[in-house]
Amino acid sequence: MEPGQRHVKGPASPTDEEEASSNFIMNCLQIITKTLVGIIYSIYSIIHLAYITIYPVEKSLKNKVILVTGAGRGLGREMSLQLAKEGAMLVCVDINADGVKETADMINGGRTGKDAVADHYTTNVAEPNQVNELARTVEEKWGKVDVLINNAGIVASAPLMENTDEQIKRMIDVNLVSHFWMVRAFLPAMKKRNEGHIVATSSVAAFTCAANIVPYAATKYGVTGLMASLREELRVNPSNNIKFTTVHPFFLDSAPINVKHWEVKSALPIISIPQVASAAIRAIKRDEVIVTVPEILRLLMTMLWIIPQKSADFWRDTFNTKINNV
Ligand SMILES: NC(=O)c1ccc[n+]([C@@H]2O[C@H](COP(=O)([O-])OP(=O)(O)OC[C@H]3O[C@@H](n4cnc5c(N)ncnc54)[C@H](O)[C@@H]3O)[C@@H](O)[C@H]2O)c1
Fold it and tell me: Transmembrane segments in this chain: where (predicted)?
């Protein structure tokens, strides 16, 4: 074309139009087919879920190396004790040296050396250098970690403007950022073996909202998002065999230092630590992706998401799960 000459676009040739409309029909057919396949697959999944609920398939945890963070007390200690009863070898990790040693001692019950089935490490999981050092030491001693349970967590309840900067930063570091350090330290070895299971203790706070725990709830939403997206990232590989479980407990009859943070006036009773631990372990054995304790919580929380905001607020007010400002 000469410089300055205008390019006049003629009407689309009948061939272009035909091609465009046949593409459109093909796209529509593809969407309809995918939707139908999706509906059939969803029905199959619901029937399969009902079947495996009645006839569950559970993997054995015997001789599996399981690392639990926050094992120095509370839920982490209880999970460690129950896992030991399943025949697992426990790597107990906590920032509290006395607490974590006590947990390992309780499991070993006097067994030492080669007979010991539990080991303990004093690690601040919010510190990436300490976490990497932990991974090196544990892999050297135990060869591998089959199940990684990121459970350590802290809470400080107050209206957001009364939380100190340090409290907010610390909750984010311990409850959320530590999961990144732990996963990044232990996932590569799991990927190499194409085997492993990563578990996170989240909370009911990841599904709903509550006053006076704004930073805590944000960290639990974060953990749930991290776990779901990481699972998705690995699912891209069709032969991936690394599993993910996120545990969402309601309020626990936890250590007094935690319990003072809330005053629950809810239709749902406070749950016991052994109840959460056994639900979490059952979910690990069944490769369940999400578990709420109690189970009904999942349905209730889903309903809160679906119903109009005003009625969600009404239900929340009615059951009044109140977090104190301490
Ligand atoms: N207590 C509840 O009502 C409740 C409800 C839902 C979810 N959760 C979650 O369950 C998990 C366990 O809660 P819990 O009630 O057993 O708490 P807990 O305070 O009794 O135990 C937490 C443990 O984590 C350890 N820890 C804290 N910071 C650490 C760090 N930086 N590095 C390593 N270890 C550290 C503590 O020393 C302690 O032993 C937490 O993630 C918590 O957010 C608790």
Answer: 31-54
**Of 67, 73, 202, 208, best ligand 1 pocket probe by most atoms within 8 Å of the beta carbon:** 73
Q: How does pLDDT run across 45-102, given as a tens digit for each residue?
A: 888 888 888 888 899 999 999 999 999 999 999 999 999 999 999 999 999 999 999 9
DSSP for 97-110, written as a single string: HHHHHHHHHHHHTT
Strand partners, 216: none
- Look up residue 290 and give its DSSP letter: E
For atom 10 of ligand 1, which residue has the closest CA? 201
* CA pair distance 104, 118, nearest whole angstrom: 5
Pocket test for ligand 1, best of 92, 180, 203 (most atoms within 8 A of CB): 203
Helical ranges in 73-177 per DSSP H:
74-85, 97-108, 128-142, 165-172
List pocket residues of ligand 1, CB cut-off 6 Å: 69-70, 72-76, 94-96, 99, 124-126, 151-154, 174, 201, 203, 249, 251-252, 254-255, 258
- Residues with a catalytic annotation lie at 216
> Each residue of 137-154: pLDDT tens digit?
999 999 999 999 999 999
pTM, rounded to two decimals: 0.89
In whole angstroms, give the CA distance from residue 119 to residue 67: 9
